[in-house]
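Re-run with default settings, no changes from the original entry. Doing this only to confirm the output is reproducible before filing.
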Amino acid sequence: LTLTRSEVVTSFSLLKTPLSFATGTNRAKKNLRKDIKARATNTPDTEMTQENSMTVPGRPTWQQTMLRIADPVNSLAFYQDLMGMTLIDTLNFPQYNFKLYFLTTLHEDETYDLTPGTQEAHDYMWSIEGTALELTHNYGTEDLDSFSGYHPGNQEKDGFGHVAFNTDDVYAACENLEKAGVAFQKKPDEGRMKGLAFALDPDGYWVEIVRRQEQGIIPNYFNLSQTMMRIKDPSKSIPFYKAMGMELIKKIELDSFSLYFLVSSCFGADETVSDAMFRPVLELTHNHGTEDDADFKYYNGNEDGRQGFGHIGFLVDNVYEACDAIRTMGYGFKKEADGGSMKGLAFAYDPDGYAVEIIKRGGIDFGDVMSTKK
């Protein structure tokens, strides 16, 4: 079972409005977590009420979502110029014929003056508390006539769904994107669900445009707000991501599918309402019944002929200690920390076979060719 396109669009009438927060400045910050949980469903649910039996050590935090891109010129123009993201770092591996670009949404009043590709930018990027979009470019794909493009997902048994951006006015935002030449999978007034849209990035990945429930709190025109993946069995996936330091803040249960929303549990004493609304969520979509089919499996985005989405990644204090704990969950590793040529970096599998990168907070010597510009 997979969500049909109409089911995907219809479901957003219930879930795509961000959690509402009071705008008063006199609210005690210690009530922020309580405010979030109060807006979650009251449906009894073991994933929401039971504590994890295991927590991965080293304060894991969700740090990246990786997508493969054909042409960095086009993709960077889309995500920087149109979606308001900042290129915070690059990792260039000419010896392996690929380059990585890391973008995130910074607060409107934050100035970024580091040069991507330098050690200073590396230090910043591998210590952020937020989530970056990692764009992977394999050299030459932009020029190869034989290259037919990456697989954007949303076909039969595809696991990856989309990334999303929040904005105050979906209609105005989509009008601006359309004027800039952006194509759409769904415009705000199309289909049964009005007021939300799916733009297409240069590689055809779905980019959801979602209205903020509270306008005027976040000054950014857009902010990265979501990555969506489909899961087979929430009784396995939710505990896995809780063990990875995430908190289930909301669940929506419909007749044929349920939606789970998780954020990294890194609320600080100085967390503001705006900060909380600024954090991207990991949306896990469960189509009911898949958990009962022993043979059912989603494509994870790394299979031959279906490559597009690559992985999500987490920062931890100690990769080896984290991997020892992850290993006890029994889902295996794509790459152990000491496997391959790059030591100290691991790729675990989650219950659906999605690759989950485990990276040392602060970074390692990746062996990339760094920029000399300051």
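The two ends are 51 Å apart (CA to CA). The CA atoms of residues 158 and 299 lie 5 Å apart.
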